[in-house]
């Protein structure tokens, strides 16, 4: 059995307070312990507002239970709950995460005037012709030529990348950044990849090898495209 002294741990940080709640006891026990500890805390009401983060661990709380915690903290005039974080996903959150990280294969040529948009990562086996456009909330990998428009990370993912076997795009977009067709010394770039340079804040185009050094999780795609 967990002793009462271990149910709620309060730690001060430079951003405020963090409340770590034990995830192996009843919610009622947590509430009782939290009320006692906050009542014992000698905070002066004239002190500035202090932000509180509540860490639930592997505990799921309903919206009503979360609101109960917020009310307990709000009773201290200078405390405000900024976030309640849990390591547990709801079914809807898990399904949304699955959709956002899923790889969708598309086998076709994207012709002028056509737009293909998917949720998650796109693996296009085919070409994007001038005037065609592909869009994805995640990364875009093209086993073919990119001569049209590609927009990765459309919901704001600035870590998304755009890779193509042959890259000579009309336009690249990643999150809210936009890059016009680059001035290649040759007709285009083989095995090229566009990404947002964290230092410069704009889109750069480099080799797949350069990008996978920055994003080692993409190595499996590099191998597929080099061997494809």
UniProtKB/TrEMBL annotation:
SUPFAM superfamilies tied to this protein: Cell-division inhibitor MinC, C-terminal domain (SSF63848)
Keywords of the record: Cell cycle, Cell division, Septation
Keyword Kinase: no
Keyword Nucleotide-binding appears in the UniProt entry: no
Coiled-coil ranges per UniProt: none
Family to which this protein belongs: Belongs to the MinC family.
Record text on subunit structure and interactions: Interacts with MinD and FtsZ.
Protein name: Probable septum site-determining protein MinC
Species assigned in the record: Halobacillus amylolyticus
Gene that encodes the chain: minC
